[in-house]
Amino acid sequence: MKRLFLALFLASLAISITAQRKVIDQAETIIKSGKNLDRAEKLMADLLRDSTYRLNHKVWVTLVEAIKVQYDQGNQKLYLRQNYDTAALFNNAKKLLLYCEQFDSLENMPNKKGKVRIKYRARHAAMLNAMRPNIYNGGAFYLRKLDFKNAWLYYDAYLDCAGQPLFADYPYPVTDTLMIKAAYRALYCGYRLNDLEKTMKYFDIAYQDSMHRENIMQYVAERQLQHGDTTAYVEALKKGFALEPRNTFFFPRLVDYYNMRQQSDSATIFIDNALRGDSTNYLALFAKSTALLNAQQYDSCIVITRKLLQINDSMPEAYCNMGLAYYNQALQLEAAQQHLKRRTKKQKQEVNELFEKSRPFMEIFRQKAPEQQEKWLPALYTIYLNLNMGKEFEEIDKKLGK
């Protein structure tokens, strides 16, 4: 019975080997003809899907040759300025790269005697090194089309070469000046795909691009926040702020982070450190102004905000802070006089002088930020009422009524 089983097995194996050889011969014939090459590629790819043939080097070599001839034909047509699908050229280059890397891993496996015989590495590496720029160009091609998924795949394939044994003789991290640019673009594609893992995969290389470091830290911060890693988010903000304290993305979010967690002391320390580094940093000055306003330190708030407006007079919120500082002082003084049976004319005048100081800042804030009605409408209502400004009061009163 065992002999019969063995005989059947050997017969089956012989048939399988014969069938395999016929398929390979068929693919080689197609390749020699230079036509229907995608058919030859499919024949070999189908064989590799069967674990029986996956270790057959001949199948891999024939597959690579089928794709290589397609690539060469496309490249020639483009060189001769004939019509050809550019995307197909890039796709063939990427397929060759990925297949050759898989085959190289297979070649690197010890045989039955425990020996490793690598026959095709040098040949394939030289071939791929010559066409590798088209892997980069493929990424750029899809990036221009805003196809971030495919663009990332090309940049990933391009950058991954540096760590592949197949390219051991090609020190890309040292010689390839495009790797940093490719890494930045891969990071950007990952960011646009809302994929933290893809965003961070080549961060260390991308960060070497000094021109785009601020953008890089912004992208990283946003994705870390989306991912729910607040520690990494804050670290990214701090790193970005250290790069450019005046960047409108990092500083306000850091201050907001501390304030939302009622860590006002940390926020104040951070603001003061920023101002020690640059006393004209208008973002830090505005944060300081707001912190002082919230702490009801109105005189200090007025001093800081006046300095802020001298540096940058285009911020609507700065006018709001200045107006509210005077306005709140007026309300405080008025409240302090409430215990009096009768206020003197001088006491009333002291309150109104503060309302008068507040008025121009609140009016400018209204002009610059009409949509922020909830901030300027109540203040101007009280100001106009106390200053007996009938026409202005009626207009505000109608708005308040609505």
Give the arrangement of secondary structure elements.
Blueprint lengths: L1 H32 L3 H12 L8 H23 L6 H22 L13 H11 L1 H12 L3 H13 L11 H4 L3 H14 L3 H5 L2 H4 L6 H15 L2 H14 L6 H11 L3 H14 L4 H13 L3 H14 L4 H21 L8 H24 L4 H14 L3 H12 L1
Helix pairs in contact: 1-2, 1-3, 2-3, 3-4, 4-5, 4-6, 6-7, 7-9, 9-12, 12-13, 13-14, 14-15, 15-16, 16-17, 16-18, 17-18, 18-19, 19-20, 20-21
Query: In terms of structural class, how would the helical and strand content be classed?
Result: mainly alpha
- Percent helix range: over 70%
| Number of distinct beta strands | 0
Percentage of residues in DSSP E strands? under 5%
Continuous helix count: 21
Order of helices and strands: HHHHHHHHHHHHHHHHHHHHH
Largest sheet: none
> N- to C-terminal separation?
99 Å
Shape annotation: elongated
| Low-pLDDT segments | 4-15
Q: Multimeric state of these chains?
A: single chain
What does the average pLDDT come to? 90
Would you kindly provide a brief summary of this structure?
By secondary structure, the protein is mostly helical. It contains 21 helices and no strands.
Account of the protein in words:
The protein is mostly helical and 402 residues long. The chain has helices at residues 2-33, 37-48, 57-79, 86-107, 121-131, 133-144, 148-160, 172-175, 179-192, 196-200, 203-206, 213-227, 230-243, 250-260, 264-277, 282-294, 298-311, 316-336, 345-368, 373-386, 390-401. The radius of gyration is 35 Å and the shape is elongated.
